User: Fold this.
Amino acid sequence: MKYLSGVERVEIRDSSLHDIQSDGWDELTKRTLHTFVMRHMVNIDVNGLYCLLDSSINSLKDLEIYGTEFRLIDLDGTPPRLHVRTLLLHRTSFLNTLSDTTICPLVLSDITSLNLTLSKPADFLHIRSALTSGKLCSLTELTIAHLPRSSQLLTDLTLDAQHALPVSQLRTLSIMFWDYRASLKIDLHLMNWWISNLTENATPNLEHVTIHILFDRLAYLYSEHHDHTVWARFNAALACPPVQVSVCLHVDEANTGGFH
Assistant:
């Protein structure tokens, strides 16, 4: 590792921080590392992540975390925080840090693009807290994926002010739903929740909304059960001021749930 230099992107998976913090790591990542991707890491806490990326503090721009559970402990002292522009969180407890600055190693006000998965009410409440508190004050692009059969969101996410998600600062919003046979009611509930949220909350800066629908291989057989009026309601919610809307249809051939 110590013979490498000028690396801009690093991806690690299925290991611990101890495994990769070898001689030469700091020199490898110093000044040039722009993107750091972490998949299915074990035995990690937020302090460990900060220490791992400390040498890249002036160059890091993008952080992606998949399938990694963190021990959410208070940060040691008050170190300089990590500055990233783009943050992607998929199936990771790191999302919990967005609502608590004592355990978050990131400067949240630097983030302009956030991509995350919402599968349970706790996830939703953490992102809502970060948005309503103004911590994500620079955020203009938000991408949200709802996992298939997110039954907790079906029962607990209600169409009221308590669960409103502020979107007034956004310019771009992308939402992914799953149109699976086993989750039609769940999908429609989430769609209706988003329609209500966009209708009830001001969207003066919103320019573009992309709706992704992920089908399973047999979904087209059940099209007679779909509520096609949902599209007219989406159009109405985004009509004033007018927002450009794109709908993208995908087939989940491998039944991956849209992520690897």
The chain has a mean pLDDT of 81. Residues 1-79 form one domain.
